[in-house]
Amino acid sequence: MVLLENKIPKVVISGQHANSTGPDALFSQGSIQVAGNRVFAVNPGSNTVAMFDIDKRDPTSLKMIGVPVNSGGEFPISVAISKQTGQVCVLNGGKINGVNCYRQDNLFGLVSIKNTRRLLNLPLSTPPSGPDDSLSQVIFNEDGSLLLVASKGSPSRPGFIASWNVDQRTGSLSDNYIRSPAASGAALPFGLALIPGTNAIVATDPAVGFSIYDFNNLTPAGAQGTVTAVIGEQAVCWVAYSTKTNNFYMTDIGTGLVTEAHIDDKLQGTVVKQYSQGNGSLTLDEAIATLNNKDFLYVLAVGIRSITVLSLEGPGNATPLQKFSLEEIPSSIIKGMVFVRHKALFSKIDETPDFDNLQGLAVHVHQ
Questions:
Q1: Residue 165: helix, strand or coil by DSSP?
Q2: Which domain of life is it from (predicted)?
Q3: What is the distance, to the nearest Å, from the Cα of residue 111 to the centroid of all Cα atoms in its chain?
Q4: Scanning 4, 116, 206, 216, which has its CA 20 to 30 A from the CA of 62?
Q5: Cross-strand partners of 151
Q6: Measuring CA to CA, which residue among 98, 102, 104 is closest to residue 77?
């Protein structure tokens, strides 16, 4: 879902979900991403990924570039874009699972890059079950030299972070990945975020809170990880970083809490404060946008069919600003929403979408 400039969203991008329904049907973070003036979205039920241009004069207008392309597997759930090269990689979370990558072409859209389809061959189904024993997110590390994937396990069979080397000249991936086991006490690495100025990441983990993995001295045994517990958490799953507060914000679908955390120069994590979004809010995906030199946190709260907005005034000071009800979108706009359907067809819908099945949130600030 794309929310542009605090305005009513005019476009929602969604693929068929292959009968995987309900809140958090994808068990993932990053199903839709914005990079520059482009939007990238996965279509789980049709096993495709698509790229759109954002109109510079009217940012609520999107134009597909080329057509949706095959994801190289089944049930794509997450997409990542390299800041260094623009390379796009998708994570498939179904029976045929793993990653596949593309270059951006202004005419043809997404074009497959040779030697980037890498299968994980995990015993998953299409659609996947979860959240235990399912895949979560794909991201590039800070310098673009690694492609990272979060694989959730269970308390009895902890998951791992997979990492491939990226050839930044050709875009190709190493033949094999390095498996970094979940940190002691962790089990289900879910949402991933870069820790700026380092080669480390934070991974939310609904089994405990969050973990920190340092890839600076990566060995065949994997990156070392440490755990920070979030007391009282039920399912801390999604994470976003604020450049203004230098803190991370994590949502918990079980408690409806946003947890603010700080990670110091020694890569030690602490919980700063928590902010309730209301009982039954079912907080899922989140995103942070900078407007007028201030950061704002947007949280998709499907339980109350809203996007909640918090103004990040400073560390430990997130002020509730707005609850934007998705049900208040005028019916004329609802009927004009465009959904990416099977076989790459666009179709107008005449019925109200099932807001309970919404997932994916990204922001674009119109310059």
A1: strand
A2: Eukaryota
A3: 22
A4: 116
A5: 135, 160
A6: 98
Output the CA–CA distances (angstroms, integers) from residue 262 to 207, 256, 267, 268, 270, in the order listed: 19, 20, 9, 8, 5
Strand partners, 160: 151, 181
Q: What order do you get walking across the sheet with 224-229 strand by strand?
A: 192-195, 200-205, 209-214, 224-229
Residue type, 64: M
* Tokens describing residue 288: 């942070």
In the chain the domains, ranked by start, together with CATH numbers, are 2-364 (2.130.10.10)
Give the range among 129-133, 244-248, 345-349 with minimum mean pLDDT: 345-349
Mean pLDDT to the nearest integer, 298-321: 94
Residues 6 or more apart in contact with residue 237 via CB below 8 angstroms = 24, 29, 131, 190, 191, 204, 206, 250, 251, 252, 253, 284
Q: Which two tokens stand for residue 202?
A: 């934070």
Nearest to 297 by CA among 262, 252, 248: 248
Q: Are 78 and 49 in contact (CB under 8 A)?
A: no
